[in-house]
Each structure stands twice: as structure tokens, then as C-alpha cells.
Design a protein that fits this description.
This protein is of the alpha/beta class. It contains eleven helices and 13 strands. 39% of the residues lie in helices and 18% in strands.
Length: 340
């Protein structure tokens, strides 16, 4: 995708989707800059109508990230997007007119030298598969995707990525496991579609995608949220970091508080999290409520604070640095972080 490798042992790629109006070039570019700063590597842009193609082309020309054209229902839009600078096409043959309707799209992608993501989801299965009672939803989704891959291969086009999603976590896990067995040579994009708002969506995505990634399934991911796309990127990196797959940005180690805590630790931890939001360093920062969970349990942290009665003791890798008043803890922590 542009200059971003996908599959073949490359690192798991982090992506998101733009939600600015499709005709507003400046709004889409501003969102891309914010996503890039947060660590996004590929963006997807919807092209709902043919009169949005001019804006899409301008975004592709100016974007610092590869732009994927997200196309439904109209093969002409996909063909034009390939000609106008798309780094990849995302289509669902089930709603673009069937397999035969993809022939011209395949030819356009081949001419442009770009891949196609074959997307399948529970809401847009082929009618014949959808009506079969002898198959489970994961079997229908995986079979549909595998059939599309086979059709593309018969046309001599193998530069494909596959995604098969549902809003149901167990169904998505089962589908991706089947696909990993059925077409192991094809890179998989994974995600929980329509996962919901930030709180629910992050939990559902972490539950489903965490299982898959830990098993080595998934070459690129999006955590889909009804929220700011930048939040999706931060959630992706946090998940990848938690699994030890890729690291970007700080990890906050903080205790859940208890009756021993003599400072407003919840407020302190939230302030630290906010101040660290734009820090790309992959460091660990501990914010601990008392000496029980202080330098001992958090000894491995790059920098941290253990709080007492209105004070905090700063430490680095278990070694005490200095003591500061409660109202100075956050600033003092940031000073130490900036020295790292």
C-alpha cells in the first residue's frame, strides 16, 4: 500500500478511516495529519458518489499517508479511484454487482499497480450464501471471501488483502481463524465492525483482535469506534504494545487505589495520561498510590512516582530520585520524562 509493506512477515499495519465530508479536501487532509502524528500508517477514505472523485484525487496527491479508496455499489468509482491515485481499493463484490462486475475493477487495479482489499461482512453477503441454513455465519463469511480470492486468482490477480467482519466478537474470531486456514497466503485485515462507542468498542476490539493477534492472525488492523479516528489509532498501538508486537508511546502503570492512598491518584493518573498523549517514546511510566505498590512492584518502570501523605517520591528503574509535593508531581514527572 504505497510504501507500506503488508504481509510476508512485515509488522502489523495500523490504519483508520477518515470521517470528514468526502468533498472537503482540507478537512480530510487535516484529519490525515492528525492521524499520522498519532502513528497511523494507512488511511481509508469513502467515496460515496462520483462527484467526490475530484476531492479524493486531491487528497491522494497531498496526503503524507497512503490513501485507500473505500467503494460500495458503483464499480465506476473504484475504476476511477485507481486511476486517480488510490494506494489500494477496498471493495465488497457482494454489493458492487457480483463477481463479474469486478472484472473491470481488477483490470484498473492491475494497470495502476495497486492491491485490492476484498471486504466481506455479515450485512452484505451474497444472496446464495446468505440463505444457506447448513452453514454458520463464520462459515458463510470465510467461504465468501475465499471464493472471491479464487475468482481474482483465475483472473491472474493475486495482489489482494481480505477482511471478513461482524459486530459479534466470537463470530469474527471464528471467521478469521477459518480464513487463516483456508487462504494462509493472503494477508488479513482484522477488525470488529460496528464495535460501538469508545468504551464498548475498545473492549470488544481488544477481546477479539487480541485473541487473533496473539495467535499470529492479522497483518493489518483497525479498531473501529464511533469516536475521533485518532482514538482508534491510540487504541491500536496500545493493543499491539500490550501484546509485545509493536511499541509506540508510553505505557502507564498505575494501581487501582485503595484505603492506603493519601493523594488523589485517579486525578493524577488522568493528568499524566493526558500529558503523555502526544509523546511517541515507548517508555513505561508508573503512577503508584503508596509505598506498597511503589518502587518495588513498579521497579521496572523507566520513570515513576510512589505517593504518600500529600507527597510523591520520584524513581527511575527502582532508584529514588527526589521527593516532591502532590501539586508538583505531574510537572516533575514530565521533567524527568523529557530527560530520558
Amino acid at each position: 500500500m504505497g510504501d507500506v509493506p503488508l504481509g510476508g512477515g512485515a509488522p502489523v499495519v495500523v490504519q483508520s478511516m477518515l470521517n470528514a465530508p468526502a468533498k472537503d479536501v482540507d478537512a480530510n487532509l487535516q484529519q490525515i495529519y492528525a492521524l499520522a502524528a498519532a502513528g497511523c500508517e494507512v488511511v481509508r477514505m469513502a467515496i460515496p458518489h462520483r462527484d467526490c472523485l475530484d476531492a479524493f484525487e486531491q487528497v491522494c496527491q497531498k496526503s503524507p499517508l497512503p490513501v485507500v479508496a473505500d467503494v460500495h455499489f458503483d464499480k465506476v468509482i473504484a475504476i476511477e479511484a485507481a486511476r486517480r491515485g488510490a494506494a489500494k481499493l477496498r471493495i465488497n463484490p457482494g454489493n458492487i454487482g457480483g463477481l463479474e462486475a469486478t472484472d473491470e475493477v481488477i483490470d484498473a487495479a492491475r494497470a495502476a499497480g495497486i492491491p485490492i482489499r476484498i471486504g466481506v461482512n455479515a450485512g452484505s453477503l451474497d444472496k446464495a450464501l446468505k440463505e444457506r441454513d447448513d452453514l454458520t455465519l463464520p462459515q458463510k463469511l470465510s467461504q465468501s471471501a475465499a471464493d472471491y480470492v479464487e475468482y481474482f486468482a483465475q483472473r491472474g490477480f493475486d495482489d489482494v488483502v481480505v477482511s471478513a467482519k461482524a459486530h459479534d466478537v466470537p463470530a469474527t474470531i471464528a471467521t478469521c481463524r477459518l480464513l487463516a486456514e483456508m487462504i494462509p497466503e493472503v494477508p488479513l485485515h482484522i477488525g470488529i465492525t460496528e464495535a460501538g462507542t469508545a468504551f464498548q468498542g475498545i473492549i470488544k476490539s481488544a477481546a477479539g483482535l487480541g485473541v487473533l493477534l496473539e495467535q499470529g492472525i492479522g497483518d493489518t488492523l483497525r479498531i473501529s469506534l464511533t469516536d475521533d479516528p485518532v482514538t482508534e489509532i491510540r487504541a491500536c498501538w496500545t493493543l499491539l504494545s500490550a501484546l509485545g508486537l509493536r511499541e509506540r508511546g508510553p505505557e502507564i502503570i498505575s494501581c487501582p487505589t485503595c484505603g492506603r492512598c493519601q493523594v488523589d491518584l485517579i486525578s493524577l493518573a488522568k493528568q499524566v495520561e493526558e500529558r503523555l498523549a502526544d509523546v511517541p517514546k515507548p517508555i513505561s511510566v508508573a503512577v503508584m498510590g503508596c509505598v506498597v505498590n511503589g518502587p518495588g512492584e513498579a521497579a521496572g518502570a523507566d520513570i515513576g512516582v510512589a505517593c504518600g501523605d500529600g507527597v510523591g517520591v520520584l524513581f527511575a528503574h527502582g532508584q529514588v530520585l527526589r521527593k516532591v509535593a502532590e501539586d508538583q508531581i505531574v510537572d516533575a514527572l514530565m521533567e524527568e520524562i523529557n530527560r530520558l
